[in-house]
Amino acid sequence: xxxxxxxQLAHLRWAFHACEKHGHGQVALVTGAVGSGKTQVLETFGExxxxxxxxVLSAAGSRAEQGLHFGVLGQLxxxxxxxxxxxxxxxELIREVALxxxxxxxxxxxxxxxxxxxxxxxxxxxxLLRTAFDTFLALxxxxxxxxxxxxxxxxxxxxxxCLLYVTxxxxxxxxxxxxxxxxxxxxxxxxxxAELRSLPRFTRVTLPLLTADSVSRLLGEEAGTPDVRGDGxxxxxxxEEAGRILRVTGGNPLLSQALVDERAHRGTDSAPDTGARAxxxxxxxxxxxxxxxxxxxxxxxxxxxxxxRPASPELLGQLLDVLPDSTVPAVRVLxxxxxxxxxxxxxxxxxxxxxxxxxxxxxxxxxxxxxxxxHENGAEASVVAEHLVASAWTDGAxxxxxxxxxxxxxxxxxxxxxxxxxxRLGGRAETDKDRRNSLMAMLITARWQVNPLAVTGQVxxxxxxxRADESSPSTxxxxxxxxxxxxxxxxxxxAISGCGAGDHGPASNELRLTRLLIALSHPDYLGTVREDxxxxxxAATAPDSASPLLxxxxxxxxxxxxxxxxxTVAAAExxxxxxxxxxxxxxxxxxxxxxxxxxxxxxxxxxxxERLLARQxxxxxxxxxxxxxAIHAEATLRLGDMDAAERGARLALEDLPxxxxxxxxxxxxGTLITCTTESGRLFEAERWxxxxxxxxxxxxxxxxxxxxxxxxxHLAMGQHQAAAADLHRSGELVRSWGIDVAGLVPWxxxxxxxxxxxxxxxxxxxxxQEQLQVSRGLDDRTRGRALRLLASTATPVLRxxxxxxAVTVLQxxxxxxxxxxxxxxxxxxxxxxxxxPRARLFVRRAGRLAQASGRAPALPQQVQRRSAPSxxxxxxxxxxxxxxxxxxxxxxxxxxxxxxxxxxxxxARGRTNRQISNELYITVSTVEQHLTRVYRKLDVKxxxxxxxxxxxxxxxxx
Length: 958
Fold this sequence. Notes:
Blueprint: H1 6-22, E1 26-32, H2 38-51, E2 55-60, H3 71-79, H4 84-108, H5 112-121, H6 125-140, E3 145-150, H7 157-167, E4 175-182, H8 190-198, E5 202-206, H9 212-223, H10 235-249, H11 253-266, H12 281-291, H13 295-307, H14 313-320, H15 328-336, E6 340-341, E7 344-345, H16 348-357, H17 360-376, H18 381-391, H19 399-412, H20 416-429, H21 433-450, H22 456-468, H23 473-485, H24 489-497, H25 506-521, H26 527-530, H27 534-541, H28 548-560, H29 568-579, H30 586-599, H31 602-613, H32 622-638, H33 642-655, H34 666-678, H35 682-689, H36 701-716, H37 720-737, H38 747-757, H39 761-773, H40 780-791, H41 796-813, H42 816-829, H43 836-853, H44 861-867, H45 880-890, H46 898-908, H47 913-920, H48 924-938, H49 946-952
Parallel strand pairs: 1-4, 1-5, 2-3, 3-4
Antiparallel strand pairs: 6-7
């Protein structure tokens, strides 16, 4: 599509009309960058001129035919479609002069500006020039003649001399000479241009790059909706898309059209600057644009592609081994074509296109040279390392330290993939054994964050290296976290058994951290840290810890082994607040996040989990992302949102497949099993249970969590003995380890459910009372569930009180399913205590919650019968009860509207109708109407009954 060229075409049409009306010849030169649409302007104008009564002769210069004398002149003559005899004389003269050109070139030294002088001295030019001009003049007699020559910069010198002869004689000829020329490194044919500029009727037309409005118009014409000025419904989307295209192409028409074509082929929903695939339309357009420039321009573009960052002329000159000033024109040409902006290639897709066109060896050589030049100029290690990795060059003595520093920076900024690439190259070049082991430890850290399965062999190598060299304890310590992840606790304990350190310093902190990690992940070793708990409780509360990682793990230790004097929730949130914006800190933040979960406030865990998962760069660390998702999923499960919990657990297992989780696999699997079991999808839960888990899982706290989930599934399947065995085992594990906190595994509650299903009410009551006494980490959902189950073991009067507490607690935790169960149980208890009318209100609310949650189990049949809208009114009730049932079935937010609720609350507080009218700024009549509807809906006879009815509905009494 030809857009944003109306003004330029108008200039050319004006020149044509001047030539036609006044008989004065015109010369126009169209200039612009490669891809700016010069050829299209010439063709469009030529088509218009032909329809306006003119004759158009066209030719195009070519780099391949630049040495072919009179090539462009021959094209002009043949495009006139004259009979052979009409141009026979000109052709014979062209052949005669062409034969003499080699001799003239030898005398002139092949300089184009002196070639004409040599031929003129021989008297060869005059007949040819006169005959050619006479031929053009004869054609102009039929109507205005347009001589259009494209790509003037590639036109042969002989044809240029003929064109100059014609342009000097256009004063009274109806001939328009139209030329186009692309921007080049150096002005092509300077003498020719000097003469053109001296002509009296010379016009220069420059084609600028496209603007956002131009690209919008281009998009609209492509879609068949040319009106994109902001009036149409789709205009904002078009303008936004145009802005994206402009950022990629810089307004180059050739590149812009390529993106529009790609967009048309793959659909309008895909943005042009997302992703890059070599060989696409856009990449081909970039290469077409480059190959139409001089070789020097392509070399600079390749150097910029290798650097992929802003480059000064000095840097480019060093990289290409040329004078810095010689790179300036090439950069200017690339900027004019829209390929370069602010000293670098404009977009990653342009970089990819240029790199993909370079031979592999040339690309490697450029990256090697870039690494050397950047290092010499003091560039950052991470910048130099990119080119070292791309070139795989390790010969310099400075290479390995640079790679190590770059890897450390990449790890600290959350890019383990970059760190691993640097460390692999550095490991091959390092010759010192200790430094090589240090690089291997860093490589394990980096690769584990991307794929834990990839480091199994390297961890074993590191352990062997530590055993072979006992003088380097840091090698052994660095292997411990990955041994623990794989369940190799004995090897981890053995690795640090011979390590000793003083009471202070980094080495001491690292050793204390390692011992605490072993103890918390495999509590069989908790005795080693329980002997001196103050050594890690001090770290948990230190305001400015020398080791944030030690502080984070110490907070988790305090959550599992409360020692008093430490507010776990406050300490964990302080750590999260302090470090959640730090790059590369996801590993540090998982410990306080898990500590929060064990301490009880699942709502805070959900909030922090969402914040961490929304961080930029989290996609680069699948391992930590999966761990945080698993913790977040368990928190949302405790909040009663099973859909979100199941979705999170599934995503965690997509981030890391089950084998990559090591002994931690019980975490997401346990959450997923619980979600599918509670949703009634028992066969799906069975499928997740069939996933193999390492035997070492049951030596970790995660194993106790998994046993709880498996026990709940056994109970749902009616396998009471298997359920009791799993739950007993879970309880025995946490009690033997001394980490029996309710926030870890509420095993007593789940075991009580088994006992209740077996009819053992006394044993169940004992377990539930013990569960409620384990206050550490007892969240509202677990407390509410325990109170509801305990109510089923009590007398009717005590059962009513316990259920009232359960309803209050479960309302606070937003678990709609458990609240529906508690309301259902209350509705069955009230008739036993002589309050049958209130039971209807509870059962209605329970039915609405069960329907809204979509996953709550079916209510008992007697409750369903009571809550059915078609039921008859209770004995003694008025006929209005039936109509109120129908109204309530349509009320999605509660029995009362907001206005009715406000009036009912004030009436329950003892306000008169007049007082309510004054307080709410409504009439007394409106108050009476609201109260009439309230009485009917709540089935009360007077306002003295309102407080009890409102409490039954759990309406807020603000």
